[in-house]
């Protein structure tokens, strides 16, 4: 585990045309080579109007997207492929360039698309052995599994941008997966375009959702996660070894940071502002606490106070190489926000992470078990000493334990690959569901927008009615007003006339007094009408104001109606596009998937066959050994038997020869006797027959002896053939059978020879008797 400080890069965007038109000046001076930023407050005259900051990387307006990728993206990718987590989070006020740096556009792709393209290029090179790192060799196979997730945090609620639904997603933590969002999609991606398809769909859903919520996407935080799993399979003569490494890359586009200081004024806006504030404020608090921690202070880190900090927990002070990208606006009217961002970035630089390679949990367990087995082996080796020392090492029990551990290791190793395959399978299932949900979710949003549209239409109708009534009312009001005015004008005329007459009258006359009363009354009437006219005027003005307001509301409602119509069209198009994209992808991958399944099945059968061959090879070796032992034993038996048979044969041959000698002697004797018999004229057919029989017997005897010799020669030849035959269990059996048959044959021959001998002896005795009887 190594300590790794969070690195900070700042980037400023060019001053916009609008800012230029408004006469805005640039308040930033950046020095890329020295990684310094100076910010000036033009409102201040003092010396401290300019402040200087130093970071790890500074990018001026002329900086290119490729440059940022080379310096910030590539090291992150290098580490991810080696099993280390990495995070980039973009911070800054709305419009400062966060999304530009993270996403860019088609001509100038940002960090996410460049990272993605490079990741797949490398993964392909490593897996196909093109990579010069030398990791892949004939006996080493490296494969990767890339999964992608994309979520949005808005008002402390997490939404799955790859599978939008009303389901409330929760953050969980486990030793196996680390911090993760339960139920959020993890889509397996096979290519750069797969990932980009998801990025674009997710971003579109984000926009649609924002429209529905009457917000802008810059008010939510988005977290795009790429998980890289690397499987290395090493095969040597003695063993096969499989290792797994997993790493996670988080690419975070935070909500505009100005919300942290400028919360909304009322209602939902206030709530939303406060919620965004909560996440960004907690991020600030976490960063401060981590800064204190790196100074050696003992502090509580409030990760759990917001969804954002909980999700980024591993990237802040935990197991990840983290980079903060602070986006700056150069316009002086944004001076205060930019200064706050720079101060925030300076605090982030204090945070230290503890980076560790992410071994698979199975891997860890396997290593632990192997260590235990080694210990057991050592213990067994010490068994003798231990026994002498009276420690009573139960070697059999320990051996059994080691055996169980080996089984466990095998199980875990199988489990590793199984989990990988299972993940791919589940991801494919999810893909299908996701495709449907995207359509349904956007369809749901469309329904809402449709309702909104109807609402606006109704409103327009109501306003138009109201306006119609008001117009009528105004018309009548104006007529009344004109009438009143006319009446008043004639009253005024009359008054003038009466006043003239009044002045011409004699003072103190009763007529004049009467006229005065009449004038006063007329004046009161005129005053009354004037008052009415003022009131009428007021109500007409009010009516006009009301109508103006209705007009404004009508303009607004009509604009909303038009925009809802546009949103509807756009969303409908988006929904159709996503559904079509997913359908196409599904069709494309279906074939690919079937092919893959077929290939896997073939590979599985091949590996099964290899295993059987391997096993057979083992059996053959075992059999060869057994054959060797049998051959030795047979050779031994054969030579003993051969010697015995040879002796026996020699003995029998000798006996036969002796007998032959005796028989020829007897024959000679018989011949002599015959001659003598002839001489003695004693003869007869009986004797001739007997002698003929004896001759035939002798003939048969000879033939039998030749047969025995032939059998012995044949059995020796058969044995020789067997020895030279292809080895195998069958051959051993044949050999055993042959051996037994031969043993039996020898036994029979032996018995037969003995019988013959006995017979020959009987014959000799008989012949002797005969000779004697013949008078020898
Ligand atoms: N380095 C740059 N070079 C050229 N144009 C840039 C640069 N940075 C940002 N812009 C442009 O500035 C505008 C605002 O940038 P952008 O949308 O990335 O800001 P933002 O911080 O993501 O905003 P919000 O928080 O609203 O999402 C965009 O029109 C973008 O094209």
TrEMBL record:
Its main location: cytoplasm. Residues 5-351 form the Kinesin motor domain. Residues 352-386, 649-711 form a coiled coil. One of its GO terms (biological process) is microtubule-based movement. Residues 597-622 are annotated as: Disordered. One of its GO terms (molecular function) is ATP binding. Keywords: ATP-binding, Coiled coil, Cytoplasm, Microtubule, Motor protein, Nucleotide-binding. ATP binds at residues 92-99. GO terms for cellular component: cytoplasm; microtubule; microtubule associated complex. InterPro entries: Kinesin-like_fam (IPR027640), Kinesin_motor_CS (IPR019821), Kinesin_motor_dom (IPR001752), Kinesin_motor_dom_sf (IPR036961), P-loop_NTPase (IPR027417). Signal peptide: none annotated. It holds the Pfam family Kinesin. The keyword Coiled coil applies. It is found in: Cytoplasm. The keyword Coiled coil applies. Belongs to the TRAFAC class myosin-kinesin ATPase superfamily. Kinesin family. This is Kinesin-like protein. It comes from Triparma columacea.
